[in-house]
Amino acid sequence: MHKKSCLLALVLLVASSLFAQNSAFQAYIDKYKKIAVQEMDRAGVPASIKMAQALLESGGGNSELARKANNHFGIKCHSDWTGKTYSLEDDDYDSFGNLQKSCFRKYKTVEESYIAHSEFLRDPRKANRYGFLFRLNVRDYKSWARGLKASGYATAGTYDERLIKIIETYKLYELDRLSDDNFPEGRPSRDKDFIAGLDLRRINDVKVVFAKNNVTVEEISQKSNISIKRLERYNETLPTVTASLPDDTRIYIQPKRCRVRGGSKWHYVKAGESLFDISQHYGVKMKRLRKRNRVPENAELQPNQRLKLRGFNIPKGEQPRLTTEPKPTETVPPLLNSDEGFMQDEDVAPEPIDTPNTPTIENPKPEQPTGTAFHTVEKGDTLYSISRRYGLTVNALKQLNNLTNDTISIGQKLRVK
Q1: Beta-carbon count within 10 A of 380 CB
Q2: Half-sphere exposure of 243 (CA within 13 A, CB side)
Q3: What is the pLDDT of residue 15?
Q4: Are residues 129 and 33 in the same domain?
Q5: Is residue 172 located within the same domain as residue 193?
Q6: CA separation for the pair 196, 198 (Å, rounded)
Q7: Residue 376 lies in a domain
Q8: What is the value of pTM for the model shown?
Q9: 328: which residues sit within 8 A by CB, 6+ positions away?
Q10: Are residues 194 and 167 in the same domain?
Q11: Are 71 and 106 in contact (CB under 8 A)?
């Protein structure tokens, strides 16, 4: 009985300890997840990876290094560090094998530590070591974890497995699906960027002023020492320069970027939203959004239309029809040649050939109507994109193929004439 009592007490002690750690870790996640997501948007480091590393390295913010030096990622001084330092025994030994105190970076705030972690990985001088990470999918936390281990970020042989376990235990992969949409107020700008009288922040790592207290574009120009002409170029268009701006109007004082860094890859258009609104929201150049999504000039976006925020241009014909475009007609245009990429030679039924002395074939297969053509469904195809490609309506395409719903599958052959 005594042994059973001891065993039960041990189990309860372990369970209590795990519960306490889980509670502390969850409180840490809730407190700093916003910074992790904003850094993902700015620098491209997955929020799940950043949060898992912070939890592991700082013990959920309870380590000595985190409490006394605001260093949540265990980043050491190295030769290029000129800021404050903190000494702590870690894994450095002298020539005689004696443990020595290691030099760690000391930060003013936790946020500064999160930013420094991104910059540490993005440092061009370390591109041969960490550069490949930024070519990985921002939502592929397993590849990121294994890449950090392979690059030697930490000495532990199971570093990647520990990160993955933390991410999956606390569902940190859900953070990788968040973006600036979830934190639209923008990240406060750094101390060195301070401009008296202006609410200066950063979106997509671009400086932007949030209008307050009836400020005008003219006043923003004067206080930031940036000409009206440059502000017009940075924002594509400006309100009347002497008019008071509504609160939280965004005026960029740096060129917007060509793509969103990290975060969500897509934006779903809200009712009444323009391409300019989306450009201002994400800090991405309007012309790049237009080109990436094949949006015609002066086109009106449709609610729930999906816009790509980074990566290659979407394939031609994949985007939904815009309200300013004419509706597709019922007329079927002449078939395209097979070398134009829309069909293969085998997709066109062969014409019967009358050849002398050809044996008579009993019960021949019924011939396809002359000029019949087919399209083989590829990845990304929809009934709408296929119908536009061949000048049909969706209903006409469904009738040709006796389809009762909009479901199609890769490799399926659809009659288009």
Answers
A1: 11
A2: 7
A3: 44
A4: yes
A5: no
A6: 6
A7: yes
A8: 0.47
A9: 321, 387, 388, 391, 392, 393
A10: no
A11: yes
